[in-house]
């Protein structure tokens, strides 16, 4: 049997780490300050400010910059995917390369094809996430273009509209994040070519790295403090206008 029990355990560990961390991060973000939660609040403040700006060239430039970053990853994903698919015709050479690496598991033709299929599937999914993110940022551009100008900060209907713009932008950022997360886990999948144990270890290292960066980094603390300062400034602004604060702490 070319597919050993250790390979099954390693592949199961990989999917548990990926799916489990995605579920964990989504749930924890609802109650804990993290990159996704705090940036959603920043986006709400940003869209509130958009309402009071008659000329929105700055917003167009910022969104265009975000779209360029995603377009780079989307095009790079296609190039990587083409390279992975090309390797299907070079399995014998790939076996000889892997067999020459010290401590690497003895290569098997069927297993190599399965590992390549896993990599190809990861990058296909990543491409779909990046392109969907680009489309959603385009939707945000349309919503900003349709948003009326009002600098009174006294229009609850437009404030709700601003929150919906922030929600669409937040969903676009989530898709971008999922695409980047696919890149992280593709590195773990690459380790499967050497040995199933390295595959499992790399999967756990990816989860550890993602958790530290998204929940326990200096960047998260700085963004959280920035959110608090923005909320304070907005409460002062609304107090001068004798209006109730509208920004909540909900996060998608």
Structure description:
By secondary structure, the chain is mainly alpha-helical. The protein has one domain (5-240). The chain contains eight helices and no strands. It has helices spanning 5-28, 35-51, 57-87, 91-99, 109-146, 156-190, 196-215, 218-240. The longest helix has 38 residues, at 109-146. It is elongated and about 75 Å long. The N and C termini lie far apart (45 Å). The mean pLDDT is 88.
TL;DR of this structure?
This protein is mainly alpha-helical. The protein contains eight helices and no strands.
Major sheet: none
Query: Which range does the strand content fall in?
Result: under 5%
Number of helices, counting only DSSP H or I runs of 4 residues or more: 8
The shape, in one word, is elongated
Q: How many structural domains are formed by the residues?
A: 1
Helix fraction, binned, reads: over 70%
State the low-pLDDT regions, or none: none
The topology string of helices and strands comes to HHHHHHHH
Arithmetic mean of pLDDT: 88
Distance between the termini: 45 Å
Please tell me how large the radius of gyration is. 23 Å
Report the count of strand segments: 0
Give me the secondary-structure category. Answer: mainly alpha
Question: Which labels suit this protein?
Answer:
single chain; about 250 residues; mainly alpha
Topology of this structure?
Layout: H1 5-28, H2 35-51, H3 57-87, H4 91-99, H5 109-146, H6 156-190, H7 196-215, H8 218-240
Helix pairs in contact: 1-7, 2-6, 2-8, 3-5, 5-6, 6-7
């Amino acid at each position: 049997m070319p597919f050993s029990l250790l390979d099954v355990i390693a592949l199961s560990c990989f999917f548990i780490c990926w799916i489990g961390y995605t579920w964990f991060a989504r749930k924890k973000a609802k109650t804990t300050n993290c990159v996704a939660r705090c940036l959603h609040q920043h986006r709400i403040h940003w869209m509130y400010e958009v309402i009071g700006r008659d000329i929105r060239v700055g917003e167009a430039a910022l969104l265009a910059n975000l779209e360029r970053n995603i377009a780079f990853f989307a095009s790079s994903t296609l190039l990587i995917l083409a390279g992975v698919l090309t390797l299907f015709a070079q399995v014998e050479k790939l076996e000889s390369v892997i067999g020459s690496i010290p401590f690497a598991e003895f290569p098997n033709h069927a297993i190599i094809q399965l590992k390549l299929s896993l990599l190809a599937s990861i990058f296909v999914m990543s491409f779909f996430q990046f392109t969907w993110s680009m489309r959603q940022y385009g939707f945000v551009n349309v919503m900003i273009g349709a948003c009326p100008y009002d600098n009174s900060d006294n229009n609850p209907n437009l404030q709700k509209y601003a929150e919906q713009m922030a929600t669409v932008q937040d969903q676009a950022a989530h898709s971008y994040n999922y695409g980047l997360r696919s890149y992280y886990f593709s590195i773990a999948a690459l380790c499967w070519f050497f040995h199933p144990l390295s595959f499992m270890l790399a999967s756990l290292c990816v989860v550890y790295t993602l958790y530290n960066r998204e929940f326990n980094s200096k960047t998260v603390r700085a963004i959280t403090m920035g959110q608090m300062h923005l909320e304070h400034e907005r409460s002062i602004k609304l107090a001068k206008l004798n209006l109730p604060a509208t920004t909540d702490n909900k996060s998608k």
